[in-house]
Amino acid sequence: MTTSDDIYKNGLFDPVLEWRLAVTRKFSSGRDDPWWDVLLELEGVALNELLDMVERSEGLKGSLIVPDSYTEKERSARPDIQYPALYAKERFLRAINEKPKSFHVRRLLMGTIVPESQLATSAVTMSEDLSQILVNDQAVVIAVIDNGIAFGHEFFRKSDLKKSRIAFAWIMDAEPKSGGPVVPQGRALTQDQIDGFLAANISGKLLNEDRFYRQCGLIDFDRPGFKPASLRISHGTHVMGLAAGYEPGTMDDRRPIICVQLPTDITMDVSGTQILPSLGRAIDFIKKHAQRFRQTNDHTRIVPLVVNFSFGNFAGPHDGTGIIEAKIDTELAATAQHQIQVTLPAGNGNLARTHAEITFTAEATANGDPALLDWRIQPDDRTASYVEIWMPPLTDTSNLASVRVTPPGGPQSDPVTTTTGSFAILHSAQGEEVGRIVYAPPHDPTHRGCITICAHPTFHHDVTSGLAPSGVWKIEILNVSLTETDRLEVWIRRDETLPGFPAFGRQSYFDNDCYQRFDSYGASLPIDPSGSGCLVTRSGTLSGFACGERPSVLAGYVETSNRLADYSAAGPITTAFGALNPTRTGPDAAAVSDDTPVLGGILSAGSRSGSRVALGGSSVAAPQAARWIAERLAAGLSGDRVAVNAQAAADDAPPPPKPALTRVGGGRLERRVRFGPKRGL
Predict the structure, then answer these.
(1) Where are the strands (E) in 429-581, listed by range?
(2) Could you say which of 104, 326, 443, 468 is the most buried, measured as most Cβ atoms within 10 Å of its Cβ?
(3) Contact of 554 with 641, CB cutoff 8 Å
(4) Would the pTM of this model clear 0.90, i.e. be above it?
(5) Which H or E run includes 571?
(6) 258: CB partners within 8 A, 6+ apart
(7) What CATH number should be reported for the domain whose range is 355-510?
(8) pLDDT tens digits, one per residue of 228-262
(9) What CATH topology corresponds to 133-324?
C-alpha cells in the first residue's frame, strides 16, 4: 500500500498541493469528492486534447471540466503556452502532481473548493461570433476585478438614473441562471438585464436596492455565505467608484464598465494562491467581452481597456515569473489592435514583518552557523499558515541549504534539503502531526526551488486533534553550498482577515528581536534602519502580483503630509533566471491613499446610492491611476507604466524629500479622485 509519505519520497511536482488536500480532508467536513478550481500552465496541447487524455485515462474519467466560456476555437487551439482556468477533482490533481509531463502541464495552481451550487456548466459553449457593441469614439472600457461590488450605485448609472453604465457584471458566487453571457460559475448579467432590474425596482428616482441586488443575485440571503455588498462599506464598490464612478450624466457613453465579483469565500482567504484560478477566469471574461466594444465611426477599432485589480499578496517568487504575473503580462498585453493597461496596488505589507533576506558569509558557513527566524503564529487562526523559502535561480539547484523547524513545545524536525522528495513532518509536544516542511524543485521559467513550511490551523470549531500550537516556531536555515553572493528570499503568505469580514485567518509574522519597529519617538519606522543587520526587512515587500513587466503599480501616500503611507510596500524585487536586471525596482508611482495621518483612507462610493465612505491602503491608489490612464487613452495618449512614472516625476514636489525609488517609483501623483468636500484638510 502506497502511503502519503511514500508519495512525498518519490518526488512530487507540487508537494504543497498534496499537503493542502490532506489538510482539507482533515478540517473540512461534508465535502465528498468536491470540485476544485485550478489554474494550469499548459505547453503545446489543446484543451480538447487534454480533456480527451483525461477521459481515456483509467480512473480519471469525469474528473475535469473545461468551462463553457471557452469557445470551440479556443478549445482546439494549441499555442506554445496557455493559462486555462479549469475545474478538477482530487484524482486529477493527484495525477498531475505525480506525472505532470503526461498532461503537458508546466505549472499548476490549485485554488479552492467550488460548491456545486455555483457551477453553471451546460452543453452550451460560448459562441465564436459575439456581437459588436458600438460606443462613443472617446470611450474607454474600465474593468474592475474585486469583491462586494454594489454596481447599482448612482455613480455607475447614466443621467436619468434608470440606465446602467455596467456593460457586463459577473457574480461568481451567485445562483446560476440562464439568459446572460455564458459563464462557468455563478451568474453574469448584460447591461440590458441590469437595466431591466433597475426599471423594475425604481420608483421616481429612488432605487429599491435590497430588492434590486436580490434579483441580480448579488445579495441573496436564501443562499449561505457572507454578503459583503450588504454592509455600509464594501471594498469592490469603493474601488470601482474611484476607477469608474462619475456623477450621473457626466460619462454616460464614454466609460462603459465590466465588473467581476470574485467568490466571497475565496476573498476571505487572502493567501493569494487560492484566488488565482478565479482571477484567471476573470481575466478571460474581461478580455473576451472587452474586444466587442468598437468605435461608432470605425467598427474595426477596438475600444481601449483599463483593468484594475486591487488585491495584493505576500508570497510567490517575486521575480515576475509567477503564473498570474505571466498570465497578466501575456493575456493583458497591449497590441496594435487593442490598447490594454493594467493597474495593481503595491501592497500594504511594508510593516507586516513577513519578509526576510538571508545571505551566508564564508565565516558563518565554515562555522556551521545557521540563519535563525522566529515565526510567530497567532492563536484563533482558522486557516493554514505558510512560509516560503525561495532559493536563488541557479543552474545547479541540488543541495543548496537545509531547513529545520521547531514548533512551540515540540521536537525539532528532521532537516529538509533542496533534494527532490525531501520533506519532514512537524510534531506537537503531544506527538501529533501539526505541519510539514516540503521541497518543490525548480520549474521553468522560475528555475528556483522552494522549501515551504506548512502549519495547520491553530483553531477549529469541530476538530480538536492536530491543531498547530500558537507561539514562536523556530526556523533554522543552514548553508550547504550557497556562496556569499547567493541570497535566500523568505516570505510568509498573507493570511489576515480583511476588514468587515467574519474572523477567519490571523496573520503570522517574524518576531526576531533584531527587528526595530519604532524610532526614538515611538513612531513606526517605514524603512529599514541604516546599518541594520536584521534578517527581517521592509524592503522586498512589494506584492507578489505586482512583479510583472507590464502593469502600473501604485504605492499610497498621505495627502496632507505628502509622506508615503507607512504600510505601503517597497521593492526591490528579485532578478529572474537568465535576466540581467529585475523587471522593476518597486512601484511605478504613488497616489493619495489617506487624507491625513488621523483621517485614514479617502472617500468613494459606499454600498448604497448617496453614500460616501472612507477606505485606505494601496488598493485605493491603484484605481485612481486607472481612471487617469483611461483619460489618457481617450485622448489618444500613452497610458503605460512609463507614462505613469513620468507623470509622477513631473508632479512630485517636496516637502518632504522624495522617498527612495524602491518605495515611490517616479514620485507622488498630484491627481486624486475626490467625491464631496475635502475631509479634514
Answers:
(1) 433-440, 450-455, 471-479, 488-492, 509-510, 552-558
(2) 468
(3) no
(4) yes
(5) none
(6) 141, 142, 143, 144, 166, 167, 168, 169, 285, 286, 289, 290
(7) 2.60.120.1290
(8) 999 999 999 999 999 999 999 889 889 999 999 99
(9) Rossmann fold (3.40.50)
